[in-house]
Write a structure and sequence with these properties.
By secondary structure, this protein is an alpha+beta fold. The chain has one domain. The chain contains six helices and ten strands; from the N terminus they run βααββββαβαβαββαβ. The strands form three sheets. Strands 2-5-1-6 form a four-stranded antiparallel sheet, with helices on one face. It has a four-stranded antiparallel sheet with strand order 8-9-7-10. Strands 3-4 form a two-stranded antiparallel ribbon. Strand 3 and strand 4 form a beta hairpin. The longest helix has 20 residues. The model has no long low-confidence stretch (mean pLDDT 92).
């Protein structure tokens, strides 16, 4: 067996539910495994497009399926016990709505284990994406659950947003394929295909992580539309995950920057006529910055074109 041990630190509150509803948060490998699987699939989409059969085979080989065991073991370990606190879920409007999680500055280790170095390398790339542009746990698409790799060659050290953009662009070039097939159809799932995705480092700098997340949530509220995700209270109503992911990056010179990732894909048919592309465009305009991957402008064909 080969293994890779990666130390990480929480940048924003990590809201990972435990075994019991409403109980203490826990570092649970299944949660991390699911997040790694999501970002691995995003990488596959960049090289395989909408070839769902090949993507499913490659994903199952590493992470397993109901028919086969995967090649990867995921573990999380901590020296001692992580502190847990209550955090507001909606910093911009409803401070009383809270959830328990692990505060910023908490450290733990992620262990990736596999009998094959190739599988370990693929899992490492997924973890890098998770720590550079994604998040873990509840509300991760709005900036919660941002983690950073520390004390490792994979760490990103940047003093300002423009420095972060330069380093992140280099790392993405190492992780993502150099060439992607043309994909005229809207992707069937969120992926980092350069025609249908974008990674942007926002130029605005924040003094506190709370300010960064509050700004994101306020703007999302102002431009509320199924194009930005939709989660109605009625369980039988149409739901749509947001195509926009926000990662809060801690800068070396103090302060925080936002990394914005857009992955456009087919939208819930029941919401397609309500999804307003211009709302998404206006929302993204609130986050000026440097594009380090993907398209420059939201494709005109999204979200309705399937021809």
């Amino acid at each position: 067996m080969e293994s890779l041990v990666i130390p990480v630190e929480t940048v924003t509150p990590l809201l990972l539910g435990g075994a019991y509803l409403g109980g203490e948060p826990e570092l649970r490998p299944p949660s991390l495994r699911g997040a790694l699987r999501f970002w691995f699939r995003a990488i596959l989409g960049a090289s395989l497009g909408n070839d769902l059969q090949r993507i499913a085979r490659a994903e199952s080989e590493i992470f397993g399926s109901t028919q086969q065991a995967g090649l990867l073991i995921v573990r999380m370990r901590v020296d001692g016990k992580l502190e847990a606190k209550q955090f507001s879920l909606f910093l911009h409007s409803k401070p009383e709505a809270k959830s328990k999680g692990f505060p910023p500055g908490q450290r733990f280790e992620i262990c990736l284990i596999s009998p094959y170095s190739s599988a370990l390398e693929q899992a490492k790339k997924a973890l890098q994406l998770l720590s550079y542009v994604g998040g873990l746990g509840r509300r991760s698409r709005r900036g919660f659950g941002s983690i950073q790799i520390v004390d490792s060659p994979m760490s990103i050290q940047a003093s300002q947003p423009d420095n972060l953009a330069e380093v992140l662009q280099q790392r993405l070039q190492e992780i993502l394929p150099n060439k992607s097939p043309q994909l005229s159809l809207v992707p069937k799932f969120p992926c980092l295909h350069p025609q249908w995705s974008q990674v942007r480092v926002c130029c605005q700098k924040f003094n506190k992580w709370e300010e960064a997340i509050s700004y994101v949530m306020q703007k999302a509220h102002e431009y509320k539309n199924p194009a930005l995700g939709w989660a109605p209270l009625q369980t039988d109503a149409g739901r749509q995950a947001s195509p926009v992911h926000f990662h809060v990056a801690k800068l070396a010179s103090e302060g925080y920057a936002l990394v914005l990732t857009i992955m456009l894909s087919e939208i819930n048919p029941s919401l397609q006529t309500q999804a307003n592309r211009e709302k998404l465009v206006q929302f993204l305009a609130c986050f000026e910055g440097a594009e380090v991957w993907g398209f420059r402008d939201v494709p005109e064909r999204w979200p309705t074109d399937k021809t």
